[in-house]
Amino acid sequence: MAARWVGVGILIVFLAIVGAFVAAGVMGPRERPSVAGQTDGMAPRPTATRPRSINEQLGPWRLDGEIALAETGEYQLTLRFTDQTGQPAAIMPPPLIQAAMVDHDMGIALSRAEPKSPGIFRAAGMLTMEGRWRLGIVVGDARADIAVDFRR
Question: What is the pTM of this model?
Fold first, then answer.
């Protein structure tokens, strides 16, 4: 009988410790991401670092874009495509974004940019590890790359 009460006592102590850890995790202080509020229903616009620009010819289109990267690894990529006359380019399907880490084989994260207006697309994502990343912007057979160094 005494062994049973010892077992129940150990179980109660164990559950109390687990409960304390759960309560601390739920109610404890949390680090707030350093990003601004929502924009256009997209992920929050990262504001921690100065945006990097990309300007190049991508197939028959001119690509002007920028990437804003937050300390949390969140990024927002804005892409503007124009045709040879300088008018917004009609691109279908929207550009494919390929995020890959340069120094580690972490696979390639694929996403599709969302059209916002004629010739303008946005993509948002998360870089999961510190280091150098390459974001590939793919339209048909044409590809442009933008490199970013992610540090917290």
Answer: 0.65
For the chain, give percent helix, strand, coil, nearest 5.
15, 45, 40
Percent with pLDDT over 90 in the chain: 40
User: Which residues partner with 142 through β-bridges?
Assistant: 139
Contact, 92 vs 139, CB < 8 A? no
Identify the helix (H) or strand (E) that includes residue 132. Answer: strand 131-139
> Considering Cα of 33, then 38, then 40, then 41, what sign does the dihedral take?
positive
Terminal-to-terminal C-alpha distance of the chain: 56
For residues 112 and 122, what is the distance between their CA atoms, to the nearest angstrom? 9
